[in-house]
Structures are given as structure tokens and as C-alpha cells.
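Hey all, quick one. A colleague (J.T.) asked me to put the (R)-mevalonate job into the tracker so the inputs and the C-alpha cells live in one place instead of scattered across chat threads. No bug as far as I know, just bookkeeping. Sequence used:
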Amino acid sequence: MSKGEGFGKVILFGEHFVVYYLPGIASGISGQTIATLEDGQKGFELVDNRPQVPGYGEKKSEEMKRQFEAIFNYFKINPEETPIKITLAGDLLCSSGVGASAALAASTARAFNEKLNLNLNDEEINKVAYLAEEAGSGTPSGIDNTCSVFGGFITFEKNKEGGPNKIEKLSVSKPVEIVMVSTGITQETKVVVADVLKLKESDEEQFKAITDEYIEVYNSAVKAINSGDWKRVGELMDKNHELLQKIGVSCDELEHLVKVAKDNGAWGAKLTGTGRGGYMIALTPGKELQEKVAKAFEDEGFTTLRTSVG
Ligand code: MEV
């Protein structure tokens, strides 16, 4: 039996914009997916024991199938000849927005690396995870698999020429509390990313104006994080959320979550990841504020994740 793990992730700045080679800011989170490989009886058998929002497995089944095929191809595995059983488990609540598909890819790649005694390093695992993400969701930036493999708090910029992406570590004096809240809605990243591309192509000038504003937000966010000015980081997250509204990736449910977070004192709140469902992130420095905001959501019946960045 061999095992591998992959972290979940949270994007603080730049989802969707990173697809167009703009920089983003993201962090691994403590929730993980764990993949276990065993010899199977016949073909490929998947046992999915991951905690997940209702409907996640059905909505993601085709995407997952493509991801596994890409991983089998990379490792030259043909389950018809060598039956394989993969069990997915761990404490990462699967929903869109939290890097669940990247965590699947990273954990499965690590498990095959162990099974086949390949001694791949994290860079190479990350390449396999990217290939699986590409097969699953079309044109990924690579930010999700990078967070899933390496964890940590980073800036990320996809390389336009196809070479290594630019990844830099951000350091903070102490981790800062956040609350992540699931809308319970699962989205296919491929569909939402394709819609953003359509919007871009329908009005390049308007899209450029939005991305210009985003660059300013990003640059100010890096400065604010480096100087520990989390009030400013919160304001910039709000601003980033407005830009995401403009590119059509928010929805009523996310707007409600953002409002509840702000009404309860969050310093900033925005959708995170794919959008149109998935997760919202609220910046809630200090255990007391984190508890207050998380409780407000739980009182409304939402599932929350109390975690931190940095
Ligand atoms: C999804 O978590 C983040 C997106 O920016 C897609 C990507 O970066 O590949 C929407």
C-alpha cells in the first residue's frame, strides 16, 4: 500500500487574473487529501471517502476521470493490465474554491511516486499535478497545484513562455486568522474560466481596464502584507472582490456570505477560487474575531473552516 498527500489552498488575490499571466497571492491550508494506492481486482476502482459538499462527486466525476487518466499516462499505468484501487480520504472538505482537485492530483501523484519508487522531488510532483489539472480543467494557471504540493504563503505568476513559474515566499511575523465558508455550490472551473475568456474576447479594452486595476490591488497587497498592515490587506480583498464581480464570477450566494462577513466585523471578504459558488474567504485577525465571524455563518447553517495564512 502506498500513500500521498496534497494540501488545500486559498487564493487571497488574483483568481482568474492569474490565468492571464498576472501575479496572485495564495496559501496552502491545513486541510489535506490523502490518496492510498492498492492492487485492485479489475481495472480502476475509486473509493472516494473525502468529506464533500452534496453533489460534489457527481459534478466533478468527468473532471476527476480526466485527471486520473493523465496521471496514469504520466506513470505509464494501464489499469486494464495492472488493476489498481485508489482510496481518497483526508480532512479537506471538497467543494470548488479550496483546491480539492489539485489536492487530488498532488496526493495521487505522490502515492504513485512512492509505489513505483521513483524518488521524484516536489518540482516533479508539481509537474504531474499540473498535467492532471490541465486534463481536468483546461487552462489552469498552476497556482492551485503549486499550493497543494508546496504549501506555504506565496506570490505566483505563470510563465508566459511556458518555463518555470515565478513563485516567491511571503513571510509574516505570525499567521493571520481567516474563515472560509462554503456556499455548498460546486462549479466546474473549466466552465467558469471559459466564460471569463468569452467576456475578455467580447471587450478586450474593458477587460484590460479591470486587469490594470487588479495590478494596482496586487502591488498594494504585497506591500501591505510585507509591512503587516492587515487592515489594508482587508480593504484590498474587498476591492479584489469588486473586480471579480465585474468579470462575472460572483453569485447571489457569495454576495450574501461577503455581506455577513463584513457585517460581523471581518476586515475583508471575497470569493476565493473559481467562484459562482465554492468558497468565500473572510480576513479575521485574532481568535476572537475569527470565532465571531465563523459562528455567524454556522448560526445560518453554513459549513466553515477556521484556518490561517502565513
Ligand atoms: C481556481 O482555483 C483558480 C482559477 O484562477 C483557475 C486557475 O488559476 O487555474 C480560477
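Adding what we noticed when we looked at it: The beta strands are 2-13, 24-39, 44-48, 84-90, 153-157, 166-169, 176-182, 268-272, 279-283, 303-309. Residues 15-16, 18-19, 140-141, 143-144, 189, 193, 273-274 surround (R)-mevalonate (CB under 6 Å).
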